[in-house]
Fold this protein.
Amino acid sequence: MAFCGNCGNQVADGVKFCPSCGNAMQVAPASEQPQVAPQPEPAPQPEPTAEEKLADATAKVDAFAQKLGNTADNTADFEKSDIESNKVMAVLAYFGFLVLIPILAAKNSPYARYHSNQGLVLFLAMLGYSIADGIVTSILRAVLYKGMGLWSIYSTCSSIINLLYVGFTILAVIGIINALNGRAKELPLIGKYRVLK
């Protein structure tokens, strides 16, 4: 194979004009022919080990949990004496309908009122979810008859729906821990909503 003396492209032997630039072929001696440096192949990336995959997944979960738990902390807005004397009322706010106790018994405590608001929002969210769950379950039972072989779809959907109740429990535990520690920190996802003033 020869190379064009003008543009340096490789040209088949016996061709009188370069197909790239159209110049007349001037066959250069082999020592003057341009040398094309071979392109180095990229180094293959090693497959991550199981430990590296686990560490990466753990870092992603930790980042998500940090982002989820990074809520406003309003503890500085409350007096220490109010916090210390109303911790029990604040804890009761996260036990479902028992939220009525701090709402009625600790009306004058801003700290108990703060946690009562979060407990009430959590209770209302769980109540609304329970009603929606009942409606969806009734629809699925009506549509997916046992005899049609689709009952496994209902079982799967029901299991997924029931798993979401764990989220309400986790939020209640976070609220209880915050109340016991004397912190007025918003719950993830629902803490920004205000029902009680």
